[in-house]
Amino acid sequence: MNQSPVNLYPYSLLLTKFLRMLSVLQSRMMRWVLFFTLILINQNSLAKTCRDELLGKFYQIGLQQNKSKIMAKKYFNSKEYRQTGFNFYASNNHFQSIIKIPHSEVVYITGSNKKNMSGDLIIVDHEKKKLVKKFKISKNDFWHPGGMGILDQTMSIPLESKDNPAKIVFYNVSDPFNPQIDSKPFDTKFKDAMATTMFRAKIDNELIPILLVKGHNEYYFYRAQTNDLNDGFSPQVYGLVHERDILSKYKKKYFYHGQNVSYLKSCGEYHYFIEGLTSVLNYFKNSIQLIELNWKSLETKLVARKKLKCGGYCHFRAGSGAIFEDDKIKFIGVPFHRKGKGMLKYKIFYLE
Length: 352
Hints:
5-stranded antiparallel beta sheet, alpha+beta, 23 strands, 2 domains
């Protein structure tokens, strides 16, 4: 008995429709893939352009310089912050850090006194070349203030102790001539806190304030509790970077790690910082370095280095700092001690 032939037309029609649908889906998928690829390429291109522009500004640091001499005799006793036989190489009493308050003519300098176990904040009117205020910011055990950081109207100062974990104090600098304690001190749970800086980074699609605390060999990152800086920082370490990874590309033994690190700018997921260092072999040999942080991977890279001449007006291991102001980098340094009985000196490197 002969079987009737199978009618394949409906199946071929279904197959044709399926292939057409698959082609449409593939086309749409390819469009989305192409769309997101273009976005990624554009983001990377913008980040690279941003980085290249910042690198150009970095290499221009120092083409212009501002030397400042501040008469400050009435604020110091005759031996305070001076290199003398009792304070050789300023080992007991010296300046620790310096920073210019953005969009103002105010300069802050911190200093420490090992003998009376206290730390000072010194406020200078840069425009009038005048020291306007000096007061204690720490005493007793927490006597060693380090590199300062500024974000918005908040300034951070690390305070080290001989026996206890370091802490960070915060000041409101909306009125830069009259800084006010902004919140309770933040306990780091670590002894080393040479410098601080603050910036914002994307976490769960939100820009969250980040506190960077520089130890002797590490960068510790703490995230803010919320996107509001005033809500304080979480006590748990959010991330950790070993600074030796940053310094591995040049001869580390020839430079001291300066107790400073300053945030400059963000280019997408990449954040850029600047550090000042001083030669071990030559007191007058200072350099700066530009550091790149990949926030997603918490990996760092040394981008560039440049030597700067202080001419007796600064010593980057003693104190230095930088701000990114009006699309320019301004780097500032101070020496360990005063020159003479009344003179306070510092230098700003910039390009107008």
